[in-house]
Amino acid sequence: MKAAFFxxxxxxxxxxxxxxxxxxxxxxxxxxRIKAGALNHLDIFVRNGMPxxxxxxxxxxxxxxxxxxxxxxxxxxxxxxxxxxxxxxxxNCGECEFCLSGEHSLCxxxxxxxxxxxxxxxxxxxxxxVNAYPKPAGLSWEEAAAFPLTFLTAWRMLVTKARVxxxxxxxxVGIGGGVAVAALQISKLLGLTVxxxxxxxxxxxxxxxLGADGGIDHGxxxxxxxxxxxxxxxxxxxxxxxxxKATWKQSIAAAAKGGRLLTCGAxxxxxxxTDLGRIFWNQxxxxxxxxGTHAEFAGMLKIFRDGKVKPV
Length: 312
Fold this sequence. Notes:
With 312 residues, the chain is α/β, with parallel strands linked by helices. It has helices spanning 41-48, 97-100, 141-146, 148-161, 178-189, 201-209, 223-230, 248-254, 276-281, 294-305; strands at residues 2-6, 15-19, 29-38, 59-60, 64-72, 84-87, 90-91, 111-112, 124-128, 132-134, 169-173, 193-198, 214-217, 236-241, 255-263, 285-288. The longest helix has 14 residues, at 148-161.
């Protein structure tokens, strides 16, 4: 089969397009003929090499994909050959204490398509049958491939962790990323007032076209101060920061008393300066979040089935 893969970690010049053996669906698995795959920043991290995460080489990248079931392994009744599906890229064991309690993304052996095992940038990919969900009829193949990782991550943070309510306020720090844009779309659907930050005027304009109520150029101003001005010195109920070290101190300062801080990444570094005094005095809650459960994926998928959102 044709695939995009690398034989050693490094830059874009390490990526090859060539032939690899076709995978075979084992018990409990399905094989998809991929119609579309989507690029995430994670793919760049994986290509460059991530400490502590060894991968078998050559490695096929791609966490997100959609396609047609080509074959199924033994015991699979959930889907059949010919079904059009999207993949939940998070793979869990189904047997540990976390899986048995329904917290699949806390699985002791949790891993992702394209990060730890061969991904979707190929003609065929093998995945657990439980990870295959019917493709929303109103989406193109490209749209169906674009949302699983980012929207699932944003959905768990907002709906499960923060338990957002209509009328609350949210600050998204760094609106350029896929999770951030997904969070903007989901939060507007759920009735939140949303402020965003970026160092790019173009990204701020794009965010406003998607419903953002206000945009702050964090390259020109202290965004925490601007948030205080926009909220009558109150701050916002929820802050979503996946930037990390460069912005975390300001994110804490932007939160209202009793506010919630959400993090799902740290692209500028995982060891920020943290004002513990502000956290305990203002009684802030910090939620870490990674991917989501199968139930959350199904819940997130419903907004696409109902035509309420389209990935951008």
